[in-house]
Amino acid sequence: MLDERTSKLLSAINESCGSGSYKLMDERELINCFPKAYRVDGDGLKAMLCYLEEHKYIEVGYAEEGEYCLRPLPEGRLYFERAKSGKRERLFRRIEAFLLALFGAFAGGFLGALTVSLLP
Q1: Beta bridge mates, 67
Q2: Contacts for 118 with CB less than 8 Å, ≥ 6 apart
Q3: Ordered strands of the 23-26 beta sheet
Q4: What are 7-23's pLDDT values in tens digits?
Q5: Which of 13, 18, 19, 118 is deepest in the core (most CB within 10 A)?
């Protein structure tokens, strides 16, 4: 699972490289995709790019003097789809747990009322 900053960077790379081909990107262009509250600098950007490359989310063709040749890999493109489906699955599990608890409560109440009504 990626942290918020790295996820934002991967999203920017995916949007810029729509066809999945290499794209030459400037360091400033990549840093500008972050809100100022994140305080991302050149070294932080390099660390995030190395992390994404090590985990096979992107491929770095070359990196020289603030210019990067980047390409998203299939794993990087599927990351957001998997994250979305994971959220959906967690929501369904919560709904299922709620409905089972609700059914159990009604069944227990019904059986308790039935037992009390059968007693002399």
Answers
A1: 26, 64
A2: none
A3: 23-26, 67-72, 58-64
A4: 888 888 888 887 777 88
A5: 13
What is the SS3 assignment for 55? coil
- Cross-strand partners of 43: none
- Side chain identity at residue 22, one-letter code: Y
Cα 57 to Cα 75: distance, rounded to the nearest angstrom: 5
CA distance 80 to 10: 9
**Dist. CA 35–CA 5, nearest whole Å:** 10
Q: Give the separation between CA 41 and CA 45, rounded to whole angstroms.
A: 6
Q: Check residue 98 and give its pLDDT.
A: 94
Per DSSP, helices labelled H in 17-73 are 27-31, 42-54
58: left (phi over 0), alpha (psi -120 to 50) or beta: beta
Residue 72's nearest CA partner among 52, 51, 86 is 52
Number of other residues whose CB lies within 10 A of the CB of residue 68: 22
pTM of the model: 0.67
Whether the Cβ atoms of residue 80 and residue 11 lie closer than 8 Å to each other: yes
